[in-house]
Specification:
InterPro entries: Cro/C1-type_HTH, Lambda_DNA-bd_dom_sf. This protein is mainly alpha-helical and 85 residues long. 65% of the residues lie in helices and 0% in strands. It is globular. The termini are close together.
């Protein structure tokens, strides 16, 4: 069984969120402020220590001002076709 933490898709998600945040000119602290959470929450997501559920992903992408589909496209491309849950 393939792990979803530290998998290609999960690592791509983390990197896509980092890239989008930086492209928006936001620090982790500024994103956390928009999300009304602690900076450590953002850091744990970006480092891959914490998984993101769909609702959180929508909130994060809105706060960064990118579409969820932009982020998911990167994840889809990075996830092998034979990936199993």
């Amino acid at each position: 069984m393939t792990k979803t933490i530290r998998s290609e898709g999960h690592e791509a998600l983390c990197q896509a969120l980092i890239d989008a945040r930086k492209a928006a000119g936001l620090t982790q602290a500024e994103l956390a402020q928009r999300l009304r959470c602690h900076q450590s929450f953002v850091a744990r997501i970006e480092s891959g220590e914490r998984r993101v559920d769909v609702i959180e992903l929508v909130a994060i992408t809105r706060a960064i001002e990118v579409t969820t589909s932009e982020i998911l496209k990167v994840v889809e491309e990075a996830t092998p076709a034979d990936h199993r849950i």
